[in-house]
Amino acid sequence: HDLGVVAEIADKVLVMYKGEIVEQGPVEDIFRNPRHPYTKGLLACRPRMDVRMKHLPVIADFMQSAADGSLEEIQGSVAKIVGAAVVSPVAHLERQAMLQARGPILQVHNLKTWFPQRNGFLGRAKTFVKAVDDVSFDVYDGETVGLVGESGCGKTTLGRSILRLQEPTSGQIIFQGKDVTAMGASALRDIRKDIQIIFQDPYSSLNPRMNIGNAILEPMYVHGLHGNDKQRRQKVEELLDKVNLQPEHFGRYPHEFSGGQRQRVCIARALAVEPKFIICDESVSALDVSVQAQVLNLLVGLRQEFGFSYIFISHDLSVVKFMSDRMVVMNKGKIVEMGLADDIYAAPKQIYTQALIAAIPKGDPETVLAAIALRKSARAFPTI
After folding, report:
1. Is the pTM of this model over 0.90?
2. Are 253 and 205 in contact (CB under 8 A)?
């Protein structure tokens, strides 16, 4: 489903929609001059690296354009759809000034989460895996901070440590002026109402024996929210509508939904306790690009409506750039670079960050043609 990867490895492309091939041809032709509106949508809904966008185009935008107009009108609609989503640099700078004026909602100071690896004499730990090693950063009220790095860099452990789903070894986590690391079990459960997490795999996150309505209702019951069960059910139906599902879906089970729909259920469950802060842990990495765009737009819309703060964890830097105001780059448990997301993408200072950005698959025609030329050269002069 990742067209950037397809562009780098394929010679020819077949585009399928609803069980049929709607377009096919050499990869450079498909990427340079896509003809079918579905293909145009697939190419456009991937987050762009050259501009900041307030929302991503989705397949429905292009299919509707195809239903309403001629090929020439569709070409104009593509530019209009993409252009309308671009954020001006001035507007982005104004948002940064507004966020910094609010002050931090979360402060992480010298956080360490180490795992004992080998025991010495008398069973004492001799060596450790330093998954999170002396990490410090702030998140401003209403801000999205992207947390990126390759697999095993410690970003997921950091997210779980902030919630104390994984107990930190040392350090301090301050949320709205309260020391999370010093809290007892009761206080910790109360504050988890305000800090929720959306996991990577929505299917594993949901109880297969519980219908999705009760899965969303359960945390309301645990925290005593929204009065009685009748009022809670009404709230669940409102949340389902909020994440673009139907109230009649209440009694259905997780296996009856697609991956994107299940992730919407998990988002609704996180919203059920009216949190102030949400950690998204690789929450769109398993979704195809068209569904991914819908879920990312939903998360941005919820941030605008409710003023959420996010930590957005992902290995996909183009997705993080779209979602994030600032970015934290991790490697081997440590922060190697931190700053405004646009600045880091434009001029990364660390070699590690440069390598991460260079590894992002790109679907623009120039990159596609360069990749094709490289493959042809390799075939003409094979390594002996």
Report:
1. no
2. no
